[in-house]
């Protein structure tokens, strides 16, 4: 079965803009709130670091064939990225911002989960289009992810709940996590 990439509906476009702005604000609040702790940890050679995690529980194909409004207006549709790529891009932007503003390194990971095999295959193509394949790991062993890596799973996110909670709530290494729990 081949998955057809559809245009992005207007309500999804708005949802994606909200997600983008929320991720940006969420990360900035966490970084600004912990900057003194990070600087203190550096002075005493502690391992404390800010670790941000974005989990997309229904990643879908990660892209759209233009905007639905473009089709209605008769415009040529262009490719539009969805929530998986938005999550990666916003965490990357926060990493660059923290480095530029505070000269600190933050640790990030993204976990993308899609249950349908044909849609999952399209998600992998999207990650390739976005030039992110070098960062992709096919694993549910989240604690082994290196900084910046993206775990990609063809699975039902509800079966991974315990692993996701264990990873994001680990007291050994605190993580600040944003779960995008969009229903199918």
Give unreliable regions as ranges. Answer: none
- Overall number of domains: 1
Total beta strands? 7
CATH architecture: 3-Layer(aba) Sandwich
Number of helices: 5
Question: Could you give a short account of the major beta sheet?
Answer: 5 strands, parallel
- Which CATH class applies here? Alpha Beta
How is this structure best summarized?
The protein is an alpha/beta fold and 184 residues long. It has five helices and seven strands.
Q: What is this structure's SSE topology?
A:
Layout: H1 10-43, E1 51-56, E2 63-65, H2 68-73, E3 79-81, H3 83-102, E4 107-114, H4 117-129, E5 136-137, E6 150-154, H5 161-168, E7 176-180
Parallel strand pairs: 1-4, 1-7, 4-6, 5-6
Antiparallel strand pairs: 2-3
Helix pairs in contact: 1-3
How would you describe this structure to a colleague?
- This protein has one domain: Rossmann fold, CATH 3.40.50.
- A five-stranded parallel beta sheet has the order 5-6-4-1-7, with helices on one face. Strands 2-3 form a two-stranded antiparallel sheet.
- The model has no long low-confidence stretch (mean pLDDT 91).
- The two termini are 18 Å apart.
- Helix 1 packs parallel to helix 3.
- It is α/β, with parallel strands linked by helices and 184 residues long.
- 44% of the residues lie in helices and 17% in strands.
